[in-house]
Protein 1
Amino acid sequence: MTEALTSPATGSPLAHLFDIAATAHLTPRLIQDEERELAETAAADHIYTAYPETLGLAVDQEAWTGFPALRDNNVQPSAVAHLDGGLWLHHTMTANADYRDALTLLVPCICGHGYVPTLLEDENDLLELLNELRVTGGRAVHSDGTGGPYCYSIPAT
């Protein structure tokens, strides 16, 4: 047997929240602006705490540009920062249950047809990758040497 739910008591917090929900009209634009701002803050906080000796010293909070979630594709809000020379940092939260920070360095391919993404786990990963990129001027090199139209990088758009 199911019991009928009764309305919350007048003046209770739940009654107040129901009233707010009935009249609130958050526009998609306001939600997107808030998501952009939160994405920028999350990215800056992550590099300051997880990469204090590298990115935390080199990338200012103002360098981040936030993007809202893509609900149709289940993509969390994210932020990007341009490092120079065509390199970008991309920060988001994982969409699975643990909501971990995911920081990816996007490196232009030496063939000029796209970018090679590298998920960074910590400062050691970043330093190792930067030392590899130093000799190529910040470009990813094809491991199979084919390049050109056979490039397996993510196409530049």
Note: Residues 115 and 154 are 5 Å apart (CA to CA).
Protein 2
Amino acid sequence: MNNAQKIQAGFDIGNIHAAATPVTFDVPVIFDADGEAVAGLTIVGKNSEQYRVANNAVRAEGYKKSARRKTAIDASTDEGAELLVQAIDGNQKRLALAVVTGWYGFTSNGAPVPLNPALLEAAFEKYPTWQEKVTTALENESNFLKL
């Protein structure tokens, strides 16, 4: 039974008082010729400390910028629309980077490479679909419910 099926069966209210344990989810990003995942990113969900800290920082910085501008971004202009897109894209990237806690299948000269935030950010730049996959997985709460 997968998490979605367990959710349909009901939620044990005792889980509210259970100690919080990090729940991770693997997001495959590279596949072999047979479609099997060979490399991917391990992420935590929106209930994690990593996400909450990053989300709070993004929101606080947004309020500070808005207060300094003393006006909202005018998205009806080309310049304003571009600023808004950049802000949204930057915030999404920061949140996606914050929730990646590990990776698997990444090597150098045949040896596993430990997660490196700078390399991860470079990977998101080169392969924007990887960031999109993380964001999509992050939005699916059933990926992170431990039932």
Note: Strands lie at 24-31, 37-44, 100-104, 107-108, 111-112.
Protein 3
Amino acid sequence: MSISTEGRTSDRAVICEMCGHEMRQLLESYEGQQDWVCSWCYAVITVLAGTEHASRPVYHPVNRRWEIAEAEGLPEDVSHAYAYFGDTLCGIQMDGMSPSPYRWTTAHEGTCQACKAAAEVIDGRWPQEKRDWDVQVITPVTDPNSLPF
């Protein structure tokens, strides 16, 4: 993984502040920022260009965290949760998959039960003491075994 700071690129891994697992960079980040998603708890941080600071991930409950997945070929009668990297929480991968502008919810009659089960497991990975709404500025933690910036 790489993180760019002031025009320099590093091969350091970004570590999740929530759970300590390695984060993956989203390729479709907006210009001037880098979005990172934890591979374990799915916390998201955004690093602004020219800085090593980000906002701490904010906890969102299961029914407020995910968008409905959209892709040609997904059944319309089943609602799947989009999981950031072109797949659903239940593991369906399709070319052109993207998040819709609508929230995915477990309350819908056509909710994918495998996505629901995965969302509940992921939700359980967030430490209780970090389930608050306070936005804090943090410095993303990097793996000390990775190359320096």
Note: Residues 9 and 121 are 34 Å apart (CA to CA).
Protein 4
Amino acid sequence: MKEKILTYALISFVLLNIWSLYLFFDYFTEKDEIMHSLGLFLNFVYTAVASVVLGGILLLIRLIVHFRKRANPLEGNFFYILSGIFNANIFIIWLISLSLHILQIGSGRLQVCAFFSLLLAVIILSDTYKSYKKR
């Protein structure tokens, strides 16, 4: 089980790196027009919302299975680990964007999405760590 969790974490980091590189090169290949970098911002917003939705659904499934006292299918699941690392990545990117004054703190829905992303990342990664230490 430990090897599977570490393998899934490594694959998750590779996929996040590929996604970040795609966004990086997509930004630099945009034409310099009036709405330059709007596509990058929208990709970030869509990615943040998708990561929170995926993490929320997987956490809900995890809680339902836990309360029914059945065998946990999400304990070492790839998508569960990916969701935790992905939400942590989204929050870190949002925090860096705030510190560099790229985004502003009063951006409402994005701010709520970032805090839910942090919450989901902490819960999912601590649950994964707990199952890692248990084995």
Note: DSSP finds four helices and no strands in the chain.
